[in-house]
Amino acid sequence: MSQTWPISQTLFAISSFTNNIQCPGISESPIRKSHISKQNKDDFYVDVFRPEDAEGIVMLFRSVYGESYPIRLFYDPLSITATNADGSYYSIVARLPTGKVIGVLHLYPSSLCKYLFEWGVGLVLKEYRNYGVLNQLAGFLHDNFVPLHTNIEEIFGESVCNHTHIQKTSIILGYVETAIEVALMPSAAYSKEHSAPGRVATITSFHCCKPKHHRIYIPVAYERELTEIYSDLNDARELVRSGKELPRGKSTCAEMTIFNYAQVARIAVYEAGEDFRMRIADMEKEAQVHKAVVVQVGMNLAEPWVGDAINVLREQGYFIGGALPRWFDSDGFLMQKLLCPPDFDDIVLHTDRAKWLLTIIRRDWERTVA
C-alpha cells in the first residue's frame, strides 16, 4: 500500500475561534443565517485562496504560533501557493478590504480514501476572534467551495475537546459525531495560549456530500454501539453481523505511521489475516521504542472477519474509538490503546450524543484495566 494513515492536522492546530457572529457583505447561506447575532467590527470578507494571500497566511501563523508550528510549509509562501495549486491543501481566506489576511481555514485529503477530505488547520488573528470569522470561513467552505468540487464526497473534522467552539460549528454545519480519540493531542500544542493542562482528546465528526451505498460488517462485541452510531448518518449502509474467523493462509496487510512530536502511532489495517495478532504486537513494540503513548488501529469494516480481528485487539488492551465513515472508501472502525493516563474528566463535549459516545468509550476502557 502506498498510503499511510496520516494524523489529523488538528493535532497541531490550536483552536482560536469563537462563534455566533455574522459578517456583513457576504451572501447569506442558510447555515450562516442560522446563527446571526450582531455585526462585526470590520467589514471583512471570505473567498478562495489567491497567490497574494500566501504572505498573509505566513504572517498569520507566525502571529498565532511564533515559529513552532510543525507543518513547515505554512512558513513558506511558495509552498502555500503550490499546495493550493495541486490540491493537497485548499485555503479559504478571510480578508479585510485592504487585503490583510485575518483568518484561514483549510480542506485537504487526510485519510486512505481519495474522496474523503478533512477540514481544519484554522486560525484567526487574536483581535478578530470574537467576530464570527470561523462561521464565515466554514460557511463559505461548505456552501460555496465544496459544491464546485465533485471529487469531494465526504468531509470529516476533528474538534478539540478542551472547549466546544468548533464542536458547535460542526453541528450547525450538519456533521454527525462518530468517534472520540482519547488523549490524542499533546499539551505542548497549547503551551502558547495555556488552554490545556494535559493531553487533549478530539471528537471526530463526518458530513456526507455524496452518498455511497455499501455493505459493512459489524463486530458482535460492539454491535449495539455501532448500530446507534450509524442511526443518524444520512448515507445508508447495509449492516451485516461479522461472524467469520480470520482467514487461514492470508497475511495481514497493515502500515504504521509514528508521529514523534505527538507520541502517537497510527496503524491502518487494510486486510487482516491469520498473523494479525503477531503483526499488531510487533507494531506496538515498535511504537513503544519510539515512545508512543497513544496507539490507534483503524480496521476495515468491509472484511467479513473484522469482528474476529477486533476481538484480538480487545484481548491486547484496545478499546473502542468509534466509526470512521468512508475511511478506506469502505468504512473504518477505530480501536485505541493508551500508554498514558486517560483524560476523561477533562473532556469537554457539546451534545448529548457526544457525551453518550464518551460514556461507552470510557466503559470499554475500564474493561481493559479491570
Structural write-up:
It is a single chain. With 370 residues, the chain is α+β, with helices and mostly antiparallel strands. The protein folds into two domains: 9-152, 3-Layer(aba) Sandwich (Aminopeptidase), CATH 3.40.630; 214-369, Aminopeptidase (3-Layer(aba) Sandwich), CATH 3.40.630. It contains nine helices and 14 strands. It is globular. The two termini are 37 Å apart.
Helix content: 25-40%
- Discrete helix count: 9
| CATH class assignment of the largest domain | Alpha Beta
Q: Numbering strands along the chain, what is their spatial order in the largest sheet?
A: 1-2-3-4-5-7-6
Radius of gyration: 20 Å
CATH architecture of the largest domain, by name, is 3-Layer(aba) Sandwich
Q: Uncertain spans, ≥5 residues at pLDDT below 50?
A: 1-39
Task: State the distance separating the first and last CA atoms.
Answer: 37 Å
Q: How does the major sheet shape up?
A: 7 strands, mixed
Number of strand elements: 14
Note the overall shape. Answer: globular
**How many structural domains are formed by the residues?**
2
What is the CATH topology of the largest domain?
Aminopeptidase
Summed over residues and divided by their number, the pLDDT gives a mean of 87
List keywords for this structure.
7-stranded mixed beta sheet; Aminopeptidase; alpha+beta; disordered N terminus; globular; 9 helices; 370 residues; 29% strand; 2 domains
